[in-house]
Amino acid sequence: MIASSKENIVISCFDLTGNMVKPWAEAGFTCYCVDLQHPQGETRQGNIIHVGADMRDWLPPFRPIRFAAFFPPCTDVAVSGARWFRDKGLFALFQSIRLFYVSIRIAEWTHAPYLIENPVSVVSTYWRKPDFTFRPCDYAGYPGGENDLYTKKTCLWTGGGFIMPPTKRLEPVQGSRMHLLPPSEDRASLRSATPMGFARAVFEANRPDRRMA
What we know:
Blueprint: E1 9-13, H1 22-26, E2 30-34, E3 41-45, E4 48-52, E5 65-70, H2 85-110, E6 114-119, H3 123-126, E7 132-134, E8 154-159, H4 187-192, H5 196-206, H6 208-212
Parallel strand pairs: 1-2, 1-5, 2-4, 5-6
Antiparallel strand pairs: 3-4, 6-8, 7-8
């Protein structure tokens, strides 16, 4: 245990799987995973609290927040789906940009190291270029990353002193695995799940005791 759970909070928003916070929870942090797909209200499993809420209405606990992550829906802003933009209409684009803005607002409010994750998207046009990009295979050498041997270019907008972790790249023998997923109800959730190697790397680089060392 490297933290007092009452004084050390991590939030991860638009997060169904909870992959990003698992290393933090194991280290004793109280972690809030907020997503509309969770059961309404709060459901606790160990140090992870699943919150079923709309991010446009939810506010983080008024206690010190040590790290924050945001994964706003990307379906209507990802460049990979650009050929469908006209069919979706302006409202879909507006809703996606609005949720990205909600992420920025809460992230800056926390004064904590944070990341906002999206694939290559029109956010770069409407806001600014990402601070970092990575592929899951770049962090597959970290514990838990054994199945992250694929290439899905991901963008990060960061702040609050976020430290991008050093890579431990393994050969992407699975190629563009996420693009090959068959159509299903949970396809979007599978595509957006945080690679565990990257989650571990971010924790190791940004945990408070490492940052103060």
